[in-house]
Amino acid sequence: MFAAAITLVLLTVAYFAVTTLVDLAPLNNVTAATRREKTIEVAVNAPVMTLPAVLILVAAALHTSVAAYAAAGLELLIVLGGLALWWLPYLVGVTVPWATAGVGETWAQLHARTYAKTIVVLPRIGDRPRPNLEHMILHSLLLAATAVTFAYASNL
C-alpha cells in the first residue's frame, strides 16, 4: 500500500504541474492563462499537494499511522477543495469564494477564457461553467490517492 499511496500522490502532483504549465491543447488551454496566474497556481498548490507524500514517507520511516492519517486527511481536504471549486458551480450554481482570488474576474469569466475551449464531456446545465476533462482526470487522481492513502494508514 505504501508504494501505491506515494505513487498516486506524486503522480497527481506531476499531472497538476504539467497540465498547469505545458500546453496540451485541447486537454488544457494554458496559453489563455497569464504567466502570473500559472505561477501563482503552481506556487500555491504544488507544495500543498506534495505534503501528503512527505507525510507518507514520515509514516513509513516512523511506522506510525498518525502521519499516514494526516496525509490522508490533507489529501481529502485537497480533493474536497477541488470538487467544491469545480462541481458546485456546475451542479448547484454556487461559486466558492477562492475561485478567482487575485485574478479580478468572476469564475464564469475565468472559465470562459481559460477552460471553455478545452475538452468538456459533461452536458450543459444552463449557462453554468462545466468541469473539463483535464480537471475530471485530476479529481479522479486525487480521489484515488485519498482512498489509497487512507487504506495505507489503516494497515500500519
Describe this structure in words.
By secondary structure, the protein is mainly alpha-helical. It contains five helices and no strands. The mean pLDDT is 96. The protein has one domain. The chain crosses the membrane at residues 40-62, 69-88, 136-153.
Name the descriptors.
elongated; 156 residues; mainly alpha; 5 helices
Short description:
The protein is 67% helix and 0% strand. It contains five helices and no strands. Helix 1 runs antiparallel to helix 5 (133-154).
Number of strands: 0
Biggest pleated sheet: none
Could you tell me the radius of gyration in angstroms? 16 Å
String of helices and strands: HHHHH
Number of helical segments? Answer: 5
**How many structural domains in the coordinates?**
1
Distance between the termini: 10 Å
Query: How much β-strand is present in the residues?
Result: under 5%
Dominant shape? elongated
**Uncertain stretches:** none
Structural class: mainly alpha
Average the pLDDT over all residues and give the rounded result.
96
What is the helix fraction of residues, given as a range? Answer: 55-70%
Keywords: Membrane, Transmembrane, Transmembrane helix
Transmembrane segments: 40-62, 69-88, 136-153
